[in-house]
Amino acid sequence: MSNDFKPTNVLIIGGTGAIGAYITSSLLSAASPKPYTTLSLFTRPGWDSDPSSNKAKLIQHWQSQGLKVVTGNVESLDQAGFTQVFEEGKFDTVISCLGRATLKYQPKIIDAAEHSQSVQWFLPSEYGTDVAYNEKSASEPTHVGKLALRKHIREKIERLKVTYVVTGPYFDMWLYPIPGYEQAGGFVPSEKKAYVIDDGEGKVDDGEGKVGFCTMWDVGKFVTATLRHPTQSFGKALKVQSFIVTPKEVLAEFEKQTGSTFDVTETPLPEIQELEEVLWDKKSDNPQPNPQATFVTLRRIWAQGGTLYEKNDNEVLEVKQEDLDTLEEGVRRYLAGGYKAETFGVRACSANL
């Protein structure tokens, strides 16, 4: 690959998912000159069988912005099938946005990219928590899948350029308490309640306990910026962030915007760790983890400072702080319905769909 490589034909896999939709929408709305010539979405066949469905309306809206559609099934398509898809579309860059439930299919997809004649650059679905933050990361049960992929890439991938875009927790999702396990953190404006983890060192009370976040829209901005800086990104795990704040600062912003005082429940870190033991069913000879175990563990990692760096990579991508979301904007969006209410402009243009 030459040093002046620029993405031309980009394929996004999982581009209608929770974070994928933000990435797809951000890429399509990127300022000119866009960091690609064509952008295509890999999605299941039959996506347009019900034109009234939200997914059909969203993809049709994106098509009006220039998106192309390629159909296939991530689960059933084998490595050779993906290689054929890549070569027929002449895709030189692939962005994976697969969710946690489908991450197990990434190795065959990246192997297909490695063996294709067209794909030069691959961005795995690494958005979120840094799985290689420190020596303790390897023992975190939430990191197993992504660490296995990194190992696979180190051992099996030789030709392909790979970039991980590590965003830390999505602020938009962190604000929502986990149903039934609210003590792991979150805000309920309708009830004027806040739940925070006390790390046992008084940091929550002192306004410490900082967490580095990305809003979901900013994840899309950072991926777009990554495509504009290929050679600076090759072979790296880029750590990017919207802002770094404490739970106390988030609480203050909620109280400011709502004009109300919140009732705050603080849960000591040891209690969260005990809850993890139960949810992961670690004392059982045949563990059956609770589906919520992952989310409780991640919140504990974040509360312990697992999102903080001496320096992030925003500058590497030439992303300016004034172009990113602020705490104020993140809270305002949450109060307006949050990421669960995001339509990516579909409602605004629904009359044309």
TrEMBL record:
Keywords: NADP, Oxidoreductase
Pfam families reported for this sequence: NmrA
CDD domains per record: PCBER_SDR_a (cd05259)
Residues of the NmrA-like domain: 9-272
Single GO MF descriptor: oxidoreductase activity
InterPro entries: NAD(P)-bd_dom_sf, NmrA-like, NmrA/Isoflavone_reductase-like, PCBER-like
Protein name, entry field: NmrA-like domain-containing protein
Source species taxonomy: Eukaryota, Fungi, Dikarya, Ascomycota, Pezizomycotina
